[in-house]
UniProtKB/TrEMBL annotation:
This is Haloacid dehalogenase. CDD domains: HAD_BPGM-like. SUPFAM superfamilies: HAD-like. Signal peptide: none annotated. Belongs to the HAD-like hydrolase superfamily. CbbY/CbbZ/Gph/YieH family. One of its GO terms (molecular function) is sugar-phosphatase activity.
Length: 193
């Protein structure tokens, strides 16, 4: 599964291209303190790619709570926005972008548009991606394939000719459901094999 064998490349953003997962987790931890829900970093990390509003619904269900999802998300996102200037691209992923800059590329993320665009601009990655698909653009989020199918459509490519880069099992499930090959990224390094 080498990028040169595919017509286009689609990347998850948080934890795949950019080291933002620690920032998301820190924001969730602060929100947990403010709203009094249990915080589990591993569980939240595994939900990478799931929109924050849906994560609050999962917290409510798992912990038997009735948190106001919109309020929790607003607080969590406020903390995240304050931490965003610390976000940096993973060096190995930046090198991969530079190596394949001639290929059509897209972002397929579970983040909101405002967060995704801010991350891309702050890290200098925006110019690589003519297509950015966010949680705001689809109704069915990862692990459903909609994010990746829309990215391929916007690039004008057959989904089966696209290679996805992901860091979570949920993201990989979404890519495979879209009929796309998927390379896992572990600690900022693609497992090209």
């Amino acid at each position: 599964m080498h990028p040169q064998h595919f017509d286009g490349l689609i990347f998850d953003l948080d934890g795949t291209l950019v080291d933002t997962m620690p920032l998301h987790l820190a924001s969730w931890e602060l929100a947990a303190r403010e709203f009094g829900f249990g915080y589990d970093a591993g569980w939240l990390y595994d939900l990478g790619g799931v929109p924050s509003r849906k994560i609050v619904d999962l917290i409510n269900g798992e912990q038997g709570l009735r948190l106001d999802g919109d309020r929790v998300v607003a607080v969590k996102n406020g903390h995240y926005q304050q931490l965003l200037p610390e976000a940096r691209p993973f060096p190995a992923m930046l090198a991969l972008l530079e190596q394949y800059a001639d290929k059509p590329m897209a972002i397929g993320t579970g983040s909101s548009r405002v967060n995704a665009e801010r991350v891309l601009l702050n890290t200098g990655l925006r110019d690589y991606f003519p297509v950015v698909i966010t949680a705001d653009d689809v109704n069915l989020h990862k692990p459903n394939p909609d994010t990746y199918l829309l990215a391929a459509r916007e690039l004008g490519l057959n989904p089966g000719h696209c290679l996805v880069f992901e860091d979570t099992p949920i993201g990989r499930q979404a890519a495979e459901a879209a009929g796309m090959a998927c390379v896992m990224v572990v600690e900022g390094r693609p497992l090209l094999g």
